[in-house]
Design goal:
There is one protein chain. This protein is of the alpha/beta class. The chain has a domain of 240 residues: Alpha-Beta Barrel (TIM Barrel). Helix content is 44%, strand content 12%. It contains 19 helices and twelve strands. The protein has a five-stranded parallel beta sheet with strand order 5-6-7-8-9. A four-stranded mixed beta sheet has the order 10-4-12-11, covered by helices on one side. A three-stranded antiparallel beta sheet has the order 1-2-3, with helices on both faces. Helix 1 crosses helix 6, helix 9 packs across helix 16 and helix 15 runs parallel beside helix 16. The longest helix is centred in the first third of the chain and has 22 residues. The protein is globular and about 65 Å long. The termini are far apart.
């Protein structure tokens, strides 16, 4: 285990490197943007716990002095207020990046992950959880984006064809060895290479299964739910998801409407977004059983491992799914050890980036639990498709009972947006992690001074002034 770094590295230290501008390239900048979209105005993303989300990204760009001109892109997803706090947390990591060798970082992203997670003073803010951990994830993901671009491959292929020994070196096994040892992880990855070429050919041809949450936001009318559910089935999706948890009678009506629209053969998952206590989760899920829900998602606090286990025992055969708010690999480990989940949901931007998600995928493979990632936010579809495709190609070897969440929001803001064909994610072909936002998006939606927010503020001021004058007679 590497020693813990006691403070930020000296940006002026020059590591030994081969001669030549590419070999001696350094990280020269870390730029953070507070990007927010007004999704609450159409109730996109609304659920029982989060009724008015404005999908947002604390977006980081790593610049270098390499002659190839490539940059690394990553972000932490938030839902509006607090995105500025997340952006400041990312900016606090700048001293750990500036001056580092690009070649060394891309050859070993785990070195940065260990340095950031292991800093004793920053660690106190977690440890390994919350805003600081999400900041680490954003920066680590930006390094992986840069590494894949320099290799000229999409991240899914970069990972799938990496040597198993190297992938194991990227995982922090501290706190995991009672459930998964490095040797077991290596064996899983070596076994996962069997048949990789055939699976890759199939992936390129067919894609990876998706399910859609687009019809299911809690604020949508029954008419909009019906229209979007019909469109989902016509588009080839075999599973949709509905938000529940605010009012049982309303949930039953909406779920019955959806079942009548999609018929008996389309899976309907339901998502409570942490709304219930354990007993309430059991009662509510049993009441919804008449529409044959495929899973109940986040039935209670994401930190309540034993609560999830109790719900799972009580509501079977309805499956229990959770993970989008799980803070780190240690909680994922406990969920698996306790038999608390039927479906594990990773989030590309919640934990400490690709390295920690590799650990979670390995744990899920060890315990034989399918992974169906969360992707209900800006850019999360773009990121997590790479992780699921790697899992299929080089670890689990199957897409049975696996699907990536899809929501049809905000993809147009990305340089390489996701592509859905016949209810499947098309395998990305562009090098990198698909995280780069378009320059026009930064100009328009940077908060608070982007052109959209400036115009919006002016319009609201005008409305307020007009209303005040009307009150004055």
């Amino acid at each position: 285990m590497r020693p813990t770094r006691l403070g930020p590295p000296d940006a002026g230290i020059q590591a030994t490197a081969p001669a030549g501008p590419a070999a001696t390239a350094r990280i020269t900048s870390l730029t953070v943007h507070d990007i927010r979209f007004p999704t609450s105005r159409e109730l996109d993303g609304s659920d029982a716990m989060n009724p008015d989300p404005d999908y947002s990204a604390a977006y980081v760009v790593l610049g270098t002095d390499a002659p190839d001109g490539l940059a690394g892109h990553g972000f932490a997803f938030t839902i509006g207020r607090g995105n500025d706090v997340q952006a400041v947390a990312i900016a606090a990591l700048r001293p750990y990046l500036i001056g580092r060798s690009v070649a060394e970082l891309c050859a070993d992203p785990g070195s940065l992950s260990r340095d950031l997670v292991g800093d004793s003073q920053l660690r106190w803010l977690g440890p390994e959880k919350g805003v600081m951990h999400m900041a680490i994830g954003a920066v680590v993901n930006a390094v992986w984006d840069l590494a894949a671009k320099r290799r000229g491959e999409p991240l899914w292929r970069f990972l799938a064809h990496a040597e198993p020994e190297w992938l194991v070196s990227q995982v922090d096994f501290r706190y995991l060895t009672d459930a998964l040892t490095p040797g077991e992880a290596l064996a899983l990855l070596r076994a996962g290479r069997d048949g990789l070429a055939a699976r890759e050919a199939g992936l390129r041809d067919r894609g990876y299964p998706a399910y859609t949450t687009s019809p299911g936001w809690l604020g949508y009318s029954d008419a909009k739910l019906t229209r979007l559910a019909e469109e989902a089935v016509a588009a080839g999706f075999t599973q949709i998801k509905l938000k529940v948890g605010a009012d049982l009678a309303d949930d039953l009506r909406r779920c019955r409407t959806a079942r009548a629209v999609v018929g008996p053969d389309i899976r309907i998952a339901v998502d409570a977004n942490q709304r219930w206590d354990v007993a309430e989760a059991i009662t509510w899920t049993r009441a919804l059983a008449e529409i044959d829900p495929y899973w109940i998602e986040e039935p209670t606090s994401p930190d309540d491992v034993l609560g999830h286990a109790a719900v799972r025992r009580a509501v079977a055969p309805v499956r229990v799914a959770t993970g989008e708010h799980v803070q780190n690999r240690i909680v994922f480990k406990q969920l698996l050890q306790a038999g608390a989940v039927d479906v594990l949901q990773i989030d590309a931007a919640r934990v400490g980036g690709v390295n920690e998600n590799l650990a979670v995928l390995l744990l899920a493979a060890k315990y034989g639990v399918p992974v169906c990632p969360h992707a209900g936010g800006v850019g999360l579809c773009e990121l997590v498709q790479h992780l699921s495709m790697f899992d299929y190609l080089a670890l689990s070897g199957t897409t049975e009972n696996r699907a990536i969440e899809y929501v049809d929001h905000l993809h147009e803001h990305f340089v390489t947006p996701v592509e859905i064909r016949d209810g499947h994610y098309t395998a990305p072909t562009a090098p990198g992690f698909s995280a780069e936002l378009r320059p026009g998006t930064l100009t328009t939606y940077s908060y608070p001074d982007g052109t959209f927010w400036t115009a919006d503020r002016a319009a609201r001021t005008t409305e307020h002034t007009a209303a005040h004058k009307e009150e004055q007679g």
